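Summary for the steering committee. One of the milestones for this cycle was to obtain a three-dimensional model of the protein with pyridoxal-5'-phosphate bound, which we needed before selecting residues for the alanine scan. The sequence and ligand used are listed below.
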Amino acid sequence: MTIQPVLRNTPDLDAALTEARQHFLARHPQAQALHGKANAYLPGGNTRTVLYHGPVPIRVVRAEGARLFDADGHSYLDLLGEYSAGLFGHSHPAIRTALSRAAEAGLSFGAHGVDEIELAALITSRFASIERVRFTNSGTEANMMALALARVATGRQAIAVASGAYHGGVLYFAGGGSPVNMPGEVVLIPFNETEAARDILRAQGPRLAAILIEPMLGSGGCLPAHAAYIAMLREEATRAGALLVLDEVMTSRTGAGGAQALFGVTPDLTTLGKYMGGGMSFGAFGGRAELMDLFDPARPGALPHAGTFNNNVMTMAAGIVAMRDLFPPQVAQAHTARGEAFRARLNALFAQLGVGWCASGLGSLMTLHPLRQMPTRPADLAAADDRLRELLFLDLLEAGVYLARRGYIALSLALTEADLDLAVSAIGAALERRLALHAA
Ligand SMILES: Cc1ncc(COP(=O)(O)O)c(C=O)c1O
């Protein structure tokens, strides 16, 4: 069934958007000039699709704590937190110190180092299901390696994933799958539809190497899985003899032991990324020793896992400070509670203003949707009018608040209580400014 977008007061909304875009352009002459220049060398002036927004993207020249500064001299309260990789704020002094020490000790040894032992120990002690871990350079790579391992370990090829899930640039499953996805047999299951997904998994079980799942669809709109859905996936993976791979690239920051602890689920493999390298390029996959030890290079017939920068000293050093000093389990718990409280405040604000907006999410990760009804499945998002997302995004930029164009927010530790108050009042003011459109 196709759900038609709810189009609100179309001519007024189009006019408001045109006016907001013009206003943005007038306030961003440098962004326009730089975009023109960038277009000559980078397709669309861009090298990371998700960052693009119209009419031209802002160009950031500096960042500090929870603030960004653009080429046009504007500053922004940063609610996006580098899509969750910027958990510690920009240029945290402890991370800077770790990085300068690492740089002084020498970059790229081309040999085993010492720091990778400590970072691996921190990770395995934090996530109950991870007995051994290996590092990669991105979350995408971590998922690719976990799936390769699942295929080898089971001798099967097919991977079950949720429609609408994002597991990396070549593992994106909205709209049936991205044209640049890595090749491989994929079985699509509906997200948060427990019985419908179970039927497919039962039918396809003997072909499945793995079920790969985000505990919360992150890029897909911060839609947390129902606990019963995750429990069903665990059950069906075991029944089929397939591996359950939990993609915690985003959600591992939730609570003391990641979403797996919250859901009480034990995956066979977990993939990690984002903030865990202290803001450096990072990815990791880990799980049961018996599976991961297939990579033990001292074993005859060991699986190869290459990567020039897998144990790069900057990431290892920053990762230790991040996980040991800045984000121990009790801080993770407190930050999760803070995020829950912030999201509740936003939803209370929307109700008080009578606007058709809601905030979905888990802990410090959330997405604002131009919808009255809280979405729980990707299909629920089809009813959103994307023009309202752009309007709010541009109005918030003007107010000096930065979030993702799609409404995504990943709260960083650098945000103070005063910053969060400021964010709530800026969002409230932006909605009130065009109340007729947002409340229609
Ligand atoms: C759930 C999830 N998995 C994997 C990835 C890919 O990570 P990376 O961008 O480091 O390749 C992302 C990135 O947004 C993600 O949100």
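Key point for the committee: The radius of gyration is 22 Å.
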